[in-house]
Amino acid sequence: MVEVVVTGIGLISALGTSLESSWQQLISGKSGIQLHQPFGELSPRPLALIGKQPAQLETLTGLVVAAALQDAALVAPLPDCGVVIGSSRSHQASWEKLAREFYRADPPQPPRDKGGLGKQWLEALPHMNAIASARSIGATGAVLAPMAACATGIWAIAQGFHLIKSGQCQQVIAGAVEAPITPLTLAGFKQMGALAQSGAYPFDRHREGLVLGEGATVLVLESADLAKRRSARIYGQVLEFGLTADAYHASAPEPGGKSAIAAIKQCLERSHLSPSDIDYIHAHGTATQLNDHNEAQLIRKLFPQGVPVSSTKGATGHTLGASGALGAAFSLMALQHQILPPCVGLKESEFDLNLVTVSRPAEIRRVLCFSFGFGGQNAVVALSKM
Q1: Is residue 118 part of a domain?
Q2: CA nearest 15: which of 382, 367, 345?
């Protein structure tokens, strides 16, 4: 039986430009959320920006891929490596720029530049970021670019996991990248009434909504046999996944959470675990009214009362498609350091859960990481200490 392990992590967030700096800020209870006004036509909003201006998708991808390979002690070219890098918004910033240039002219005209509109359009297709990453490291194996709303990051890790389990690859770079701070994204979430006014407060009685954040995480997945042969450092083992869809609504979760519960049960069954085996849950915890209520209900329904729970979105903001990959990375760090990360931003809980408000040492062997995306995309991954 092929076991899949994680031997490298590349992560960048509003908390820090590396895995270690983001982790240290997180366990110190810090938040990368600040008030910003990156676009003059929109009012200031709390956002989780990595720099002073919105980041570029390609830049974030290059940084985390390079960091993950260095962390795993791998050197390109890697011809037999698979690449699975997803994004929910992908190159939307580029599309908005093209649209602005088109409609600025009277009558509207395609942008004129030395590269040509055709080249700009081709490079901004949703799958091109994954293809560019494969090209940059000389990977000629499978290349996938999942898009599953906020569940994208865990879906990407699941696809990489199955490439290894099926024998197609022994190494896969898997994760998600999000640079969602664009005028249209902000306007859309504002129109839905989903954006917070002052900050992100997951599971708090006075939570206001989500705060958009930039971020990226890729994991180096390997067969355990290969990792051991090359004496690689192992963060933890990827046990299994649960992936379902609500088939209910474009944005609201299914009342009662039947499909989300099914995803959790799938994951536990495939991992040969029971709810009482779980030492920590990294919750989706968006700080929206519906998500936090539904998620708290299903945790109370399925798990023993004392299981520690936290969401890191009060620190990183909601990085949309990348959020599950960030959550998996922070969960692996919890396994590595035996520290429970805090639910930053939580002051007064609305729910009867064992919510971690301050980081603390704990015995952590097995964790679950949840992602529940718009459109009812449910993704759950189980991770364990080796």
Answers
A1: no
A2: 345
